[in-house]
Design goal:
By secondary structure, chain A is of the alpha/beta class. Chain A is 25% helix and 20% strand. In chain A, the strands form 3 sheets. In chain A, strands 1, 2, 5, 6, 7, 8 and 17 form a 7-stranded mixed sheet that branches. In chain A, strands 4, 9, 10, 11, 12, 15 and 16 form a 7-stranded antiparallel sheet that branches. In chain A, a hairpin with a 5-residue loop joins β13 and β14. Chain B has a two-stranded antiparallel ribbon. In chain B, α2 crosses α6. Chain B is globular. The chains are: A alpha/beta (525), B mainly alpha (188). The structure holds flavin-adenine dinucleotide (FAD) and iron/sulfur cluster.
Chain lengths: 525, 188
Amino acid sequence: MSADKVDLLIVGAGASGSLYAAVLAKAGKKVLILEQGPDWKHADMVSNEIWGRRLKGGAPVTLEGKDKMGYGYNSGYGSGGSAAHYFAMFPRMLPSDFNMKSAHGRGLDWPMSYAELAPYYDRVAQDIGISGDAKAEERWRPPGQAYPMPPLPTFRHGDVWLKGFDALGIKTARATVGINSREFKGRPACVYDGWCNAGCPTGALANPQSTYLKEAREAGAVLKNGCTVTRVLTNAKGDRVTGVEYYDEKKQKQVQEASVVLIAAFVSQAPRLLLNSANDKHPNGLSNKNGLVGRYLMAHTGSTIWGMFDEPDVQNYMGTLAPMHWSYDRYAKTSRKNAFGSTLWHCSPAIKPNDIGGIANARNDLFGQPLADFIKKASKQLARLQAFCEELPDADNRVDLDTSRKDEFGLPMARMTHTYDADAMGLWQAGVDEGLEIAKAAGAKDYWAIRGAPTIHMAGGTAMGKSAADSVCDGYGRTHEIGNLFLSGASVFPTEGAVNPTYTIYAVSLRGAEHMVKNWASIAA
Amino acid sequence: MVAMQRRDFVKRVGLGALAFTVGGTEVMLTPSQAYAQGVPYKVLTAEEAKTLNAVCETLLPGAQRAGVTHFVDHQLAVPADQSFLMARVANVQPPFINIYRGGLGAINRSAQAMHGKRFEELDAKTQYTFIDAMRQNKIEGWAGPPGPFIYFLMRHDAVDVVYGTVEGIESLGTPYMAHIAPPTRWEA
Ligand SMILES: Cc1cc2nc3c(=O)[nH]c(=O)nc-3n(C[C@H](O)[C@H](O)[C@H](O)COP(=O)(O)OP(=O)(O)OC[C@H]3O[C@@H](n4cnc5c(N)ncnc54)[C@H](O)[C@@H]3O)c2cc1C
Ligand code: SF4
């Protein structure tokens, strides 16, 4: 059964899908979003780390490689996607991130420059509300507009590190975040209780529920939850998509026709959907003649330093999960002697006792009474310092189909294979070494680094690029092989810099969505 | 400090009450009440619960009284996509009972081989030494899911029930400050 044809069918109601839905619905297009998970509302965002786990995960995947992707922690499903419970730390990528291949012969080039993207960064800030100090940030990037709100206030557990940065000659600025430092467009200011990992229910943090998804629904976009898209369908010639096949909330198979299809399904499911949509005209999957669908999966290593400060109360239970201070001083690709790529320093988030980012995990060797004693002391004296380090795209880090495991609809699951190379590990080690020096100079009474490089954030899998030979889609997300099939979100990143991805996801998506509106007649024809 | 006052209404609900069946009727209890009343387990066997209790109490004093076994048992009984266990975040393939059963089995097999007893029958000092070896993957002949991973999962469960609650956070002398307090009933 085919329901009424829509103009734009979006797969996934996460960060990027919500933005496209808002822009296209406001332009008068009939937009339908199909989202596999539940319709999380603000009321579901219970302030508790244990309850917050409901928002995590997504379609099951097989994880392989030496440094397996931290998939469950770094993803989300349901309305808002991973951004229903993200921390809204919003660093931009820098100009040097967009032309790494031409400048250094490493990684891949983006099909756009920083200068082309910069106006969209500025506009996103005005759209959803960003707090920060643009002038201070301009130490490291070309000038742009001021942010609509001043930076968030700081707490002692972030400020304690500044002495250490100073001692090493590392300049810092107040972090830029998608969190309200004062009321913005009727949404309240943050109250610094640190519950962001369970989802911010007040509107203080720019999650899709408070921003683009809300706007999309107000503009008439329809969201159907519990709907898993299993295949994108093409015409007999294979040169146009006609819609999608999906299973609805009653697990009934449906077909939905659409003039244009956008896959905004994040790094594991976007490639999987293209691969599972193989047909006689596209035997390797859609837009996969060059075999690049699924390739160039990336994560950030995090050099994580903990410090115990001999002060009565550093107020580490206050703040947000985004940092207060950061530094791009080690961002140049050649900053480190023995490893290529960027590093971003940042400190410090509010800390709860439990869960992955919690106090107990800061010393995972302790148990029994020593653990109880540590948690007690740390609850007033512990602070965290972290560096995000870049991982270069490597074709062997990839998503492909695990034909040995099928989902409930009989389709092969995604397999994510991921191993860090020597550069990624070198940047991580350099971060650990420098972080320990910062901690010492900051006067921490006790300080240590977490052993082993984690996989933070995820990007890649359906890379954008200038030519059909070396990428899956162009700079507007349009697939090289099918003119009315688009991709967006973290999966289209050809490289990742050393920054959290979502501010860039929004900027790239806004650029793509406006291009789609402007060129609708030729795209949908 | 910012905006603390409006949080005063937050109820002291701990982990919230769970629905337990006692004598044929459903009652709402917190995990620690369920433990104190000896409510039957839904998924764990009584033997498994005894071992899990002893392991978690070794990992963090207070876990037993906080009802760690009833917390885990309840979360094993709900569908995996509704589970609150760290196992879900740590990419364990459901059903999650498999990793618990595998881990507890391996612990008891090693305890028998080393000491001729089940884990819960060992004295506290021996239990501590055992967990310390398990955490470092240093138990010879270990047969089951990796010891360090079992340590990771069960340690998170113990920390969750002792400190991941309104009472737990306030017991540290830090304010809870909920926007939406954990509800009094678990929505399975
Ligand atoms: C704990 C945490 C903290 C984070 N903190 C930050 C931060 O501070 N700053 C930052 O920039 N980023 C942060 N991120 C990352 C950020 O959330 C993601 O990069 C971003 O949400 C990705 O956007 P997206 O639109 O590509 O995918 P998502 O937002 O993940 O949305 C994808 C959606 O597609 C749906 N979907 C997938 N497959 C299908 C299918 N077949 N059918 C139907 N629906 C489907 C999924 O259920 C999901 O809802 C954080 C993430 C996590 C998990
Ligand atoms: S700390 Fe601020 S952004 Fe985070 S949940 Fe609380 S009000 Fe929201």
